[in-house]
Amino acid sequence: MKRHTGTITNRKVGLSSVMEFETDRTLLESVVMPVVFHLQGSYEVQGMVYTTVFKKFDNQQLKKMQLEIDTSMINQPMREFLGVLNKEGFEAYLVGGCVRDLMLKKIPTSYEVITSAKLEEVQSLFFRSTIVDEEQFRVCRLSVDDSVVEVLSLSSFVNKSSGDFEVYFRKPSTCSDRDYIYWKVCLQQDFTVNGLYIVYDFVGGIYDIMKRQVRTIIPGKIYFDMDPVQILRAVGVAAQLKFELESDTSLSLKELSHHVQDIDTEIILNEVHRMLAFGHAKDSLMLLWRIGLLEILIPGQGFASQNIEESNMLPQLFSKLDDIVEPEENRPSSKELWVCIIYFYLALVRKPRDPRVCAVFTLAIRNGYFLEAAKRVIHIPHQSYDTILCELSTSQDLGEEEIKEQILDLLTSIVNVISTTRHGVFPFKMIMGKVGEIFAGFKWEFEHEREIDESRWDLMVERDEMEDGDEVCWSDDYFWDMIYRKDGEELGHRLLLKCGQSAVVLAMIVYSTVFSCVCVVESTSSCLNAFLC
Length: 533
Description:
transferase, tRNA_ntf/polyA_polymerase_I, nucleotidyltransferase activity, PolA_pol_head_dom
């Protein structure tokens, strides 16, 4: 392992520092290139970029590294799309995350293509394609089968003369003009694992895939300072791939984590939603906590002192959430659901609760009947509880009225947590109203148990007992109604709860976390059916 040293100078503030970059020449032919990053205004940074020497890999070489690409995983319409560009005399390569996914034996859900054709030429070849202006460059966007495709043109980079930053560097003597342009394009990517062509590696992405690590192409101290949004995206990419953060990248994240305060709140919400709603919430949570971002996003809530790795409930709650979402089928969780999980957890941190209280709480959400839930839970043996969770107190022999009183106290505590989480970077205000309605609805239900036709309710839930022509309709995630119809005629109607599906799934997640005897189901729909029946 050889170490390379480069000087990074911030001319705006007159500071200099020395950074070291490691390269491993035993696996890949590698080099560190001198680069000048010029931002708008007077901000200029000099540094080094670690890269491979314009290395092309065939599938035999990739096979030795267990990274060979099965082209059958690229859908047929996408292969035909590339074939059309080649037939017209244009170069076209898959680039970015789709190449990474193929090497990791995952079927891509979206594709990026870099081509020598101009975007107008691409648009003329394919119907329903649109040229849009992104933050840094123009792209041609279209749908191929069920996949979203973004096409980038080399001319967009060759002629690029403005933007957030420009990169200047010497052309290596061993580099052709063609490869030099492709390499410049790679430097516009965020992380090395997203900087691969099929199959050219200009940035050491294959090495990092083999090491299962996420590393910025531009040195992290420069990159995260230029674009703080990439701080959150680095966490999301690492969690999604189940990779580690490369040491220098991780260090830069920790040092510059406070820069997330400069990001627009709506962007923060969208980035955190990508982390928590698409099947890698637990890993995202752990990374956010380890690099110190969790207490910045949600300050004053004990995350700085709370050892999440030892206190298992929040990771377990998010692990259950990961088990039921289906990102491949475009069925992520709603924002309201994972925010509810956070608030529920914070309320238990403030005051641990009896497991039986949590169980009655969740079962009562399931069917709207507190007394029935209390009777069922009171008779569950003590050994069924997961006593490892420090957010749960020692189980006691509580009567129905005592359980109801503690549930109301729990709901009051959650509402208080919601009302006091007013500051910090995370834009809770954007969804606080909906989430507040969930728990306020719970509290109202417990305080005012409504008289309902139990026979009709049972018939609506137990679908096997229905006759032909009977139908139960569930509305959207925010206003969740249960409508009973027979032969098209509406016979019954009940507003269960606002944010109903989120409410029921939250109850299922909490119940299955508290009780180890509850099985994990395969999908959100089957999860709801199992919990409702």
